[in-house]
Amino acid sequence: MPTVLKIGPYRFFFYSNERGEPPHIHVQRERFLAKFWLNTVTLAGSRRFSSHELRTIQKYVDENREIFLEAWNEHIDS
Asked: What would you measure as the largest C-alpha separation in the chain, in angstroms?
């Protein structure tokens, strides 16, 4: 499960066995989890994060979308 980026308490990562899915990024803080699609940044699902915190995280995903897509493509193509 490669970690792509850490911002404050958030770890952005993806799982190695997700080759069949569209590009996305998982976000974790403690036992809180969320998943965002990257082609058009949208929330795919969340556990325990508040709406307010999800908006903050989505902003981070938007700002770093190209980094996440590049990491996804490098890992999936390898």
From this structure: 36
